[in-house]
Amino acid sequence: MSIFRHCCTTLLFLLYPIFGTAQPITVCSTCSVQSIKSAVSNAEAGATIIVKAGTYQEHEIIIDKPITLIGQDTPTIDGEEMGSLFKIMSDSVMISGFRLKNVGFSHATNYAAVHLFESSDFIITKNILENVFFGILIERSKRGEISGNLISGESDAEFHSGNGIHGWNSSHLMISDNEITGLRDGIYLEFVDDSEIAGNESWGNIRYGLHFMFSNRDNYYNNEFRDNGSGVAVMFSKFINMKGNRFYKNWGTASFGLLLKEIYDAEIEGNDFYQNTVGIKVEGSTRINYKGNNIRENGWAIKVAGGCYTNIFTQNNFSYNSFDLSYNSKMNDNKFYENYWSSYTGYDLDKDGVGDVPFRPVKLFSYIVNRTPETVILLRSFFVDILNFSESVSPVFTPDNLADTRPLMKPYQ
Amino acid sequence: MKRLLNMIIVFGLFFLACEIKPQPIEFGHDGCHYCSMGIVDAKFAAEIVTNTGKVYKYDSAECMIRSLRVLEGEPELVLVMDYAEPGTFIDAKTAVFLVSDDISSPMGANLSAFKSEEAITVHNKSDSIFDWTSIKDYLK
Q1: Residue A6 pLDDT class (50, 70, 90 cuts)
Q2: pLDDT tens sequence across A117-133
Q3: Fewer CB within 10 Å of terminal CB in chain A, N or C?
Q4: CB–CB of B27 and A159 under 8 A?
Q5: Residue A257, number of CB atoms within 10 A of its CB
Q6: pLDDT (tens digit, 9 = 90+) per residue, A280-322?
Q7: For the segment A351-391, what is each residue's pLDDT rounded down to a tens digit?
Q8: pLDDT: is A160 or A262 the higher one?
Q9: Residue A184 to residues A60, A78, A308, B27, B98: CA-CA distances in angstroms?
Q10: B97 and B61 in contact (C-beta within 8 Å)?
Q11: Which residue of A has its CA nearest to B36?
Q12: With b meaning 16 or more CB within 10 Å and e meaning fewer, what string describes A62-84?
């Protein structure tokens, strides 16, 4: 027994330095410490600062040591549009439970509610960010968690807006369960590797819900992208997995559910594309597997432009799109097989669930619309039906080998 | 008489459409002709008007310059936005181009355009300055 007690005391003694400064610093309007800045400058490394409810007019709060900042009953930090609110330049910083509002705007500097620079092992969680220029700006940082934040910009500021979560030259980020609206790009990642983006809701942003540039080995899954300029853009990136995401109602002349440009080795699986001008636009992309996606009620389900190789489309459901496919390059070694096409009118005599005649998803009329967009007003006309029918009987303009040779009779489950 | 008036209006519109002049960029709505990205940043956008009056819009100067090689039609006006005065076009042929790590442009070339060399406010020892001919070579 005494050995056990002795062990406990030893353990406590050993742990003492970790929980060392046991007393957290409390900040409130009637406390001895009344500003977050002075609390931070007085705190030792590893300290916890608890900020009580109230409004604090502060900006450029520089955190240069490991600190845990916790807001109790959502205190407000008002930057009064003067600049960034938090600037974090240390490892192991946590910020949780704050309302951060009114970040400054500038053409030359990217001001943010939370600006992380050369930081690692950070947690930014459960904060509300309002009227921000940039929301959370992450530069040259790694191993961070950004979760459960609500980030909004003033959408009337149009092109003056920055991005909700902006990652640059960083790695191993976990961005999850955030809601982002009224910004330029909801989430923008440039040179960001080995990161996960999950369960976020990004809607009503001017450009993209989520945007990858020059980023590799990232996964994004179970996110919703709704009513953005375009849903998601993946550009100049490799090994990006996209699973179980929802791309809804991205409408406009230059709008896409998903835009792929110059990307390699991606998996696109189990996503739902619903009511977008173009479901997926692909350009210059190689070794992409599209599997088990629902692509329904879009203007164009998929638009394929030049330079695409080894793209495989299988087990996808193409339901009630105005055009299933637009294809303005060579067939190359791209494959379509065992997809469900709602506009398939073939038959299945041997009852194996697979249509006996191939389906040709490219209609002649989609070629014409691509060249002269105004002709789209003829879409439901009898003339166009004849045109499409004659082309399907003897293909002249559409690639002869562009066909689903095993079209499914029923939607893939 | 009424028919004549209608014809005049129709012909008028016809010629109006062919006029060679820059078209304002609608930020947040227009897409880049070269890379398909939405155009949102007034510091970097660019535009080409061909000799037939066709307008191509770009999200960045690097996209505009790269698209010159594959452009259908002869460019008449080549315009870039002034980094120092976002939203205003300047003639690319007389502009000064800056490649600086301190300015990240939409397509990763770190390229911005200015009216004159004096207008450049960012200074860094890694920066390099180009004119219209040399920037085209640089981006090749």
Answers
A1: low
A2: 999 999 999 999 999 99
A3: N
A4: yes
A5: 32
A6: 999 999 999 999 999 999 999 999 988 899 999 999 999 999 9
A7: 999 999 999 888 888 888 877 878 888 888 888 888 888 87
A8: A262
A9: 23, 22, 29, 11, 24
A10: yes
A11: A254
A12: ebebbbbbbbeeebbbbbeeebb
CA A269 to chain B, closest CA, distance in angstroms equals 23
Instruction: Measure CB to CB from residue B36 to each of A236, A252, A261 and give the nearest one.
Output: A261
Q: Which chain A positions have a beta carbon within 8 Å of B29's beta carbon?
A: 229, 252-254
Q: What letter represents residue B27's amino acid?
A: F
A214–B121 CB contact, under 8 Å: no
State pLDDT tens for residues A56-83. 999 999 999 999 999 999 999 999 999 9
Reduce the DSSP state of residue A118 to 3 states and report it: coil
Decide the pairing of beta strands A61-63 and A323-327.
Answer: unpaired
- The answer to whether A77 and A106 are in contact (CB under 8 A) is no
Q: Which of A154, A168, A207 to substitute to test the interface with B, most B CBs within 10 Å?
A: A207
User: Nearest-CA neighbor of B93 among B47, B140, B45, B132?
Assistant: B132
Dist CA B97 CA B134 (whole Å):
9
Q: Distance between the two ends of chain B, CA-based, in angstroms? A: 58
Q: Which two tokens stand for residue A69?
A: 């900042």
Q: For residue A237, give both structure tokens.
A: 């990136």
Contact A362, A327 (CB under 8 A): yes
φ/ψ of residue A165, rounded to 5: -120, 120
Q: What is the pTM of this model?
A: 0.86
For residue B58, list chain A residues with Cβ-Cβ distance below 8 A.
Answer: none
Assess B86–A contact: CB distance below 8 Å, yes or no: yes
Taking CB atoms and an 8 Å limit, are B108 and A213 in contact across chains?
Answer: yes
In this prediction, residues A46-64 reach a mean pLDDT of: 95
Classify the phi-psi angles of A36: left when phi > 0, otherwise alpha if psi is within -120 to 50, otherwise beta. alpha
Q: Which pLDDT score is estimated for A174?
A: 97
ipTM over 0.95: no
Per-residue pLDDT tens digits for A246-263: 999 998 887 899 999 999
Q: Rounded CA gap, A23 and A49, in Å?
A: 9
Neighboring chain B residues of A208 at a CB cutoff of 8 Å: 38
- Looking at residue A67, its pLDDT comes to 96
Q: Give me the domains of chain A, ranges plus CATH numbers.
A: 43-228 (2.160.20.10)
Rounded to whole angstroms, how far apart are CA atoms B78 and B56?
10
- CA distances (Å), B88 to each of B27, B82, B95, B98, B135, in order? 13, 6, 13, 17, 20
